[in-house]
Amino acid sequence: MAVTTTRSDLSGADGFNSLRKDNETGTAAITSSAAIVKPTRLISVSCKFNAAPTTSENLTITANLASGAVYDVLLYSVDPSASSLTDLVWLPDEPMWFYDGDSIDIAYTNTDTEDYGIEIVMMESV
After folding, report:
1. Residue of higher predicted confidence among 59 and 126
2. pLDDT tens by residue, 35-79
3. What is the Cα–Cα distance from 43 to 28, expressed in whole angstroms?
4. What counts of helices (H) and strands (E) characterise the chain?
5. Cα 5 to the chain's mean position, in Å?
6. How far is 70 from 79, CA to CA, in rounded Å?
7. Residues 6+ apart with CB under 8 A from 80
8. Do strands 16-26 and 2-13 pair parallel, antiparallel, or not at all (unpaired)?
């Protein structure tokens, strides 16, 4: 599993100055987590499989909040095998804000060991 984080300067755009992209690739179980250290708005989560998984299991996107497990929220869940899914892009319906100590977690068992690429796109405050 390889994880990289890139940032681009976008000074003045909506009061933010940094576009952050966390990327991960691999063939084992997906346990990706974007740790938040400053006010951050979630823009999108995308996942690409090299082939459609055939084993029924859910890919989940979860808001893991610093306030405690009782506040954690499942944001999205999908079984890629149900529709032979190879490409997924999830966009929040409304702006979603995260703060220091929160994380955005993506999980998938990946029994079929398909190659995958995940990207989490966020805007960070100054």
Report:
1. 59
2. 999 999 999 999 999 999 999 999 999 999 999 999 999 999 999
3. 26
4. 0, 10
5. 12
6. 25
7. 49, 52, 53, 59, 86, 88, 108
8. antiparallel
Which residues, listed in sequence order, are joined to residue 33 by a DSSP beta bridge? 105
CA distance 28 to 110: 6
Per the listing, tokens 């063939």 go with: 27
Contacts of 21 (CB under 8 A, 6+ apart): 5, 6, 7, 119, 120, 121, 122
Query: Does pTM surpass 0.85?
Result: yes
Domains of the chain, earliest start first: 2-125 (2.60.120.340)
Pairing relationship of beta strands 116-125 and 40-49 according to DSSP bridges: antiparallel
